[in-house]
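Quick one: structure tokens for this chain, please?
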Amino acid sequence: MDGSLLDPWRNMDAGTWNRAIALLSTHHVSTFRKYFTLRSTANLGTGGKARRILRNHTINY
């Protein structure tokens, strides 16, 4: 899960987590799914590159 947060910040969000922290400060986010869905409201990517990052950090049981 950590990689699912860190990789987008490093590789997509201009190397900073400021917009993601602002998003989390203004919305009650109880799940990663909700956070990822809300990323687009903060002008943060949720498209192909973001989904590939998530896939690389997902464990399929």
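The helical segments are 2-11, 18-26, 32-38, 48-56.
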